[in-house]
TrEMBL record:
It comes from Salix koriyanagi. This is TROPINONE REDUCTASE. Belongs to the short-chain dehydrogenases/reductases (SDR) family. SDR65C subfamily. Keywords: NADP, Oxidoreductase. InterPro entries: NAD(P)-bd_dom_sf, Sc_DH/Rdtase_CS, SDR_fam, TR. One of its GO terms (molecular function) is oxidoreductase activity. The keyword NADP applies.
Length: 210
């Protein structure tokens, strides 16, 4: 079988043609790669990020590749902005959503005793609260698609201790794993599949200090 035939077979097997996806934190790192892969497989993707210039640069790049990607500036730590994001996605995709990738996250690198109460709130909100709320908001759209999928971007640090400066981040990701299990059971009746992936360290801007 030729390489072209192999590629064609792969494309058909993994085709996402006609499907819609929302990827949070898609302007850099792992999220950026996820957006590109989903779009390359035929999905129509909406993403978001806090950096307007970076988002617009990425959108121009994806458009040049022929990808169907739109984007909006959004701070996922804000309830109101999360609600606005899902309203925009609902409008773009006619009230339906096939795939939600809860990818946005981040860390504040400190020793445990140096963390403040504000650090705790910020990290839990960024890594867990935003994903929980977005899943709630997106549920009607995912249900309307007939076969919705949610993927939570967890971390290996959610199951093993890897660094003293990941205490709150790791705890939030551990809670995300349990959230995944709960939603998978609760929303199965709505034909929504819920999974999490827990990658090891990947060379992205988030891990440049490591």
């Amino acid at each position: 079988m030729s390489q072209q035939e192999n590629n064609s077979s792969r494309d058909k097997r993994w085709s996402l043609q006609g499907m819609t996806a929302l990827v949070t934190g898609g302007t850099k790192g792992l999220g950026y790669a996820i957006v590109g892969e989903l779009a390359a497989l035929g999905a129509t993707v909406h993403t978001c990020g806090r950096n307007r210039d970076q988002l617009h640069e990425n959108l121009r790049e994806w458009k040049a590749k022929g990808f169907k990607v739109t984007g909006s500036v959004c701070d996922l730590c804000s309830n109101a902005e999360r609600e606005k994001l899902v309203e925009e996605v609902s409008s773009l995709f006619d009230g339906k959503l096939d795939i939600l990738i809860n990818n946005a996250g981040g860390n504040i690198h400190k020793e445990t005793l140096d963390y403040t109460a504000e650090d705790f709130v910020a990290l839990v909100s960024t890594n867990l609260g935003s994903a929980f709320h977005l899943s709630q908001l997106a549920h009607p759209l995912l249900k309307a698609s007939g076969a919705g999928r949610i993927v939570f971007m967890s971390s290996i640090s959610s199951v093993v201790s890897i660094n003293a400066q990941y205490t709150i981040y790791s705890a939030a990701k551990g809670a995300m794993n349990q959230l995944t299990r709960n939603l998978a059971c609760e929303w199965a009746k709505d034909n929504i599949r819920v999974n999490a992936v827990a990658p090891w360290s990947i060379r992205t801007p988030l891990t440049e200090h490591v």
